[in-house]
Structures are given as C-alpha cells and as structure tokens.
Amino acid sequence: MIARQSFAERVLNPGLRDVFRMGVRRTYAFRMWLYLGILQVFFQLLLVKAVWKAVYGSDATVDGISSEMMLTYLTVVGIINFMIYPILADEIHERIEEGQVAVDMVRPIGFVRQMLALELGHSIGRWALLIVVVPGMLLLGSLTPPSPGTFLLFLLSFALAYVVGIEIWLLVGLSAFWLLNIGGMRSMVGLIGGFFAGSLIPLWFMPGPLRALAEWLPFQSIAYLPAAIYVGQATGNELWRALIVQGVWAVILGIAASRVWARAQNRLVVQGG
Q1: What is the CB neighbour count within 10 angstroms for residue 15?
Q2: Pairing state of beta strands 65-66 and 61-62?
Q3: φ, ψ of residue 104 in degrees (nearest 5)
Q4: Which residue, 31, 34, 73, 227, is the most exposed by fewest CB within 10 angstroms?
Q5: Residues spanned by the domain of 243
Q6: How many whole angstroms separate alpha carbon 141 and alpha carbon 68?
Q7: pLDDT tens figures, 210-246
Q8: pTM above 0.85, yes or no
Q9: Distance between CA atoms of 84 and 74, rounded to whole angstroms?
Q10: Residue 171 and residue 15: Cα distance in Å, rounded?
Q11: Direct distance between the N- and C-terminal alpha carbons of the chain, in angstroms, rounded to an integer
C-alpha cells in the first residue's frame, strides 16, 4: 500500500522547488521585456493620471472622492497590476501546442502543481523589482500611507487578489485543452477583466447597472477591492464584505479550476511533437 504524502511533503517536494527556482530564473531571462514592463507601468500611470486630472479640472473632489485619493488609488492599482502578472495561461498553451504537456503529465508531481510553482517563482522574481517600481510610482503618483491596521488588511486583501488572479488565468490556460489556441480567450479576459477590475475607472464612479455587473464578477477582487481598502474607501462593514467577497471567489474559482482540470486530462490533444 502506497503511503499518501502529507500536505507539507507535497508543498516541499524537491521537484516543485526546482520548478519554482526555474520560474524565478526565467523572470530575468529576457531582461529587455522586463524593463519594458516596468516602463509600461510608469507610462500607464502617467496616462490615467492625465485623464483623471482633466476630469477633476479645478475641482478638489468629485462625488466625495478627493483628487489625492484618486491619485493614490491609481498608484496602488498600478503596483498591484505589476505584482499580479500571471504567465500561467501562456505557459499552459505553449506546452500543449508544443507537446511538452505529455511529458509534464507523466512526471510524479502534478501538471497543475508544476504550473503553479512556476508561476509563484515568476511572481517572486517580479516582486524583487519593487525596489525600483515603488520609488518610480511614488515619483509619478502618490502613496499616502494608511494606518498600520488598514495596511495589514490591505496585505490580506492583496494575497486574496493574487489567488483570484492566478485562478482566473489558470482557467484560461486550461481552456487550451479544448480550444488549442487561446489567443482570443486571453484577449477577451484581459480586456474585460482589466475594465471590471477597476484598473482605469474605480467601481465607485461606474453607473449603477455597470457597477452592479462588476460586483457580480470576480475581477473586482484583483485590483479594485484591495486598492479601495488601501485608500480608505472601503471601511467598517464594507471592508469586511470586500474580504469575504474575495475569499468566496477564491474558493469558487479554485473548485472550478479543479473540476476543469479533471475533465481536461481526458481531452488532451498534442500539437507538434
């Protein structure tokens, strides 16, 4: 009878550690793309800052939101989007297209666990660059610090945002077992998700029906909710509601990903060789 591995043994599996380290190293393999990604974050903040500066004009507040709070929100969202930049969907798609997935699936550690370890390594590699990104965002935007308690809750919200973001892109990646080419799916999720995540327009400025739709989708959990907590827009019951919404979506998407993966294993069609 084969003994089942404990949770700690599965997490600390030497194979997963190697995949994790590979993810960190791959982050710096194409440094020019990495530098361009940093510049993109700065450029996007400059653009949205210019747009919202024009919206506010000479007004100090709009609908009770000060221009300083709005700038801080945009800055925090920019940092969150830099930190949550999954490669998961592209990695899965590439492995299916090239046939590498057939080898991955016969390894003693599960395919999805390999991909998650690779993604976490990639993320850790990017987060090391916050030493450059944060000062740049401070120079271009604003990061008025919240109270220590609020900041701790923001970190909890960010952790949940990271989980939700990874699960969404894991589902997009797993769709390659049916679609084979996920270019259209990836673009659609990126466009719709970026909008409803509140990356450009906070949910508090959206018209009623549009905001109601956004609140029924998981994307707000990735950027809007943690940023709203940071700037103090979500307080009291709203703050705890935001954390509960993120937690619920993390569970729902995790269950969905598990079920999709169970079906995907029976749909494998290898392209190339």
Answers
A1: 13
A2: antiparallel
A3: -60, -40
A4: 31
A5: 9-264
A6: 9
A7: 999 999 999 999 999 999 999 999 888 999 999 999 9
A8: yes
A9: 15
A10: 23
A11: 36
